Amino acid sequence: MKKLLAAVLACIMAASMVACSGGEGGQNAAAPAGDESTTSTEGAAPKEGGKLVGISMPTKSLERWNRDGSYLEKQFKDKGCEVKLTYSDNKIDQQVKDIENLIADKVNLLVVAAIDGESLSNVLSNAKSANIPVISYDRLIMNTDAISYYISFDNYKVGQLQGQFVIDQLGLKQGDKSKTYNIEFTAGDPADNNATFFFNGAMDTLKPYIDEGILKIPSGQTTFQQAGTAAWDTKKAMDRMQNILASYYSDGKTQLDVALCSNDSTALGVTQAIGSDYKGTNKPIITGQDGDEANLANIVDGKQSMTVYKAVANEAVATLDLGMAMLDGKKPDKGLIESSGWEFDCSYDTESYDNEKGIVPSYLLDPIIVTKENMKKELVDTGYYTMDGDYLKAKN
Ligand code: BGC
């Protein structure tokens, strides 16, 4: 019940009570309706003195960004802001154009989840010249001094949770080589700065067991470059796993014990490949991240073992409070966490995220492990999802 429900109630009561131009932020995360359009400006016009917020999301094709976009839009609108929300179809040029348009529309604040972290330097220097503050949302935007803050989850911890899950499930103990296991890695998009954090978190956690030979990687594909999946694409992840299965697991003897996948879109492809092409009789452990509906269904059906859940509703709340403070001309720091009264864990980090122009101050929320066992408690009882028969449906 706790966190989100309390927040939803707070939102209903607090909605519209504080105008966008001022006031402390809220801790209210409500579940707004989905939006199919590429650019959405529908709904509340700014109240007097209100502000215009531009939100640039990467794509609707990866489930979570639909939730992020609608949560963010609802949060800022409830404070009386006008919102322009764009989705760029995972096309870098399109995102540059979308941001150019938002700048031309004279937004007062930009919230950007980059498709390619390296490709926004020019357009964001225009934002800087126009005095538009920028929040780098979820994915760190590289090579620019135009962003003031980064807001995300602890990306390294996501990978650590996946790695630790594998250790716990297999009951691995350092020094105990009585049984060895085979693992394959599927990492994320090399253009996404998060992807290396996820991979390194998992790899660093599992490395002692790999070094001791307790975990083996028959494909030999041990580096991020080898395991990466452009655009986090499900089909690419499936094709790669089919190749690995054909090349290293087709002798009928080599068992695949673990498919460590950085997120749910890649886990979906890997699960499909294993379903169609794996000859073994065991069920490999498959990890994921996001709590996408199809993956939660696979967890219910025993095809995927876990997902790392990141409450994007809370990420939107944190972004709102940060954004409102910035719109008020403040320079938020660690104190924002306390003054906002968030009911979720968040740390202020001024060390980990260097975008090659310097360290970007970061607000990092806490991810959690979701399995078949705790799914109802963590996702349904908290108000993020509803039950739809045996399966879960996201409230967005
Ligand atoms: C996000 C993940 C997501 C991935 C693909 C990453 O930047 O942090 O939650 O799975 O992008 O959409």
Description:
Strand 7, helix 6 and strand 8 form a beta-alpha-beta unit. The strands form four sheets. Strands 1-3-2-4-5-6-13-12 form an eight-stranded mixed beta sheet, sandwiched between helices. A four-stranded parallel beta sheet has the order 8-7-9-10, with helices on both faces. It has two domains: 6-153 and 311-365, Response regulator (Rossmann fold); 155-289, 3-Layer(aba) Sandwich (Rossmann fold). It is built from 13 helices and 16 strands. The chain is of the alpha/beta class. Bound molecules: beta-D-glucopyranose. Beta-D-glucopyranose binds next to loops.
Structural class: alpha/beta
In round numbers, the mean pLDDT is: 91
- How far do the termini sit from each other? 18 Å
> In the CATH hierarchy, what is the architecture of the largest domain at level 2?
3-Layer(aba) Sandwich
Name of the CATH class of the largest domain: Alpha Beta
Compute the number of structural domains. 2
Described by strand count, sense and barrel closure, the largest sheet is: 8 strands, mixed
Helix proportion range? 25-40%
Within the largest sheet, what's the order of strands?
1-3-2-4-5-6-13-12
Beta-strand percent range = 15-25%
Bound molecules: beta-D-glucopyranose
CATH topology of the largest domain: Rossmann fold
Number of helices: 13
| CATH superfamily heading of the largest domain | Response regulator
Q: Element order, helices and strands?
A: HEEHEHEHEEHEHEHHEHEHEHHEEEHEE
Number of strands: 16
Name the shape in a single word.
elongated
